[in-house]
Design a protein that fits this description.
99 residues; mainly alpha; two-stranded antiparallel sheet; (Perigord truffle) hypothetical protein
């Protein structure tokens, strides 16, 4: 029985016939495409999301009548809840509609 128990346990090999460890593998087309997607496409999508977020925030600030929001198309100057008031000198002043 002792011979069967010792045969089942692996014995350390004294010879160095194992293959060397390869540290470098040449790039494949799949790896190049994956790297290009990460470094070129994802920043582009990130920029789009930041731009849309800025547009949304500006539109929200304009619709809520927060000061400092400039709108260049003159057809959109009056927003809901914002009405033009005239000061004592006759100039138009933006103000909240909840007076």
């Amino acid at each position: 029985m002792s011979t069967e128990a010792t045969a089942a346990t692996p014995q350390p090999s004294s010879s160095t016939t194992s293959s060397p460890i390869i540290l470098y593998k040449p790039p494949t087309i799949q790896k190049l495409l994956r790297t290009a997607a990460i470094n070129l496409v994802l920043p582009f999508i990130n920029g789009l999301m930041l731009g849309f977020g800025e547009l949304f925030a500006h539109e929200l600030a304009f619709r809520w009548g927060w000061g400092g929001t400039r709108v260049f198309p003159s057809s959109r100057v009056a927003a809901p809840g914002v009405e033009d008031k005239v000061d004592e000198r006759g100039r138009k002043v933006k103000g909240r509609g909840r007076g």
